[in-house]
TrEMBL record:
Keyword Hydrolase appears in the UniProt entry: yes
Cofactor(s) for this UniProt protein: Zn(2+)
GO molecular function, one term: zinc ion binding
Chief place of localization: cytoplasm
Cofactor remark from the record: Binds 1 zinc ion.
Protein residues bound to Zn(2+): H69, H73
Gene name, Swiss-Prot/TrEMBL: sprT
Pfam families assigned to the protein according to its UniProt record, in alphabetical order: SprT-like, Zn_ribbon_SprT
Keyword annotations of the record: Cytoplasm, Hydrolase, Metal-binding, Metalloprotease, Protease, Zinc
GO cellular component, one term: cytoplasm
Official protein name in the record: Protein SprT
Cited PANTHER family: PROTEIN SPRT
Length: 164
């Protein structure tokens, strides 16, 4: 695990402790995150997971923005409790007040998307396809139902598949 990232997590905690005049329990930190997310904060477990590929590709911004973003989630949970919105005013207060950063919800890193099979679903709307991932298609197989937001009709599998 990169030492710079762990040092940044520690620096973020020290800033929060100075701001709130209290001690915070340090989280477990791992690099076991893939896909489009740069980082995830698991509030109940006091754990942070980071995406190693996005870290390698965007180190400076990752350390400047992503690490404080995820630490701010854990700090907000410990200070304000579990009934707050993930990117609500409490989290924004920490981003602005503690870390002096704009509270951006999402990163803008280039993410290489894997090709995958899409399962085509349709509703009653004309010319409207809904390409489902394999994971969502499997949920339908286990009984989950989806509806069209426009016509409120059920989405049904057409039998078609395509690679995207």
């Amino acid at each position: 695990m990169p030492d710079r990232l762990l040092a940044k997590v520690e620096a973020c905690y020290q800033q929060a402790e100075a701001f709130f005049h209290r001690r915070f329990t340090r989280p477990d930190v791992s690099f076991k995150l893939r896909g489009q997310k740069a980082g995830v904060a698991h509030l109940q477990e006091n754990r942070l997971r980071f995406n190693p590929q996005l870290y390698r590709d965007n180190q400076d911004d990752f350390l400047r923005q992503t690490v404080p973003h995820e630490v701010a989630h854990l700090i907000a949970h410990q200070v304000f409790g579990g009934r707050i919105q993930p990117h609500g005013e409490e989290w924004q207060l920490i981003m602005r007040g503690v870390y002096e950063l704009q509270p951006h919800r999402c990163h803008s890193y280039a993410v290489e998307r894997r090709q995958g099979t899409r399962y085509i679903y349709r509703c009653g709307c004309p010319d409207q396809d809904f390409p489902f991932t394999a994971q969502r298609h499997a949920l339908v197989g286990r009984g989950r139902r989806y509806i069209c937001r426009r016509c409120r009709g059920p989405l049904t599998f057409t039998g078609e598949q395509r690679v995207e």
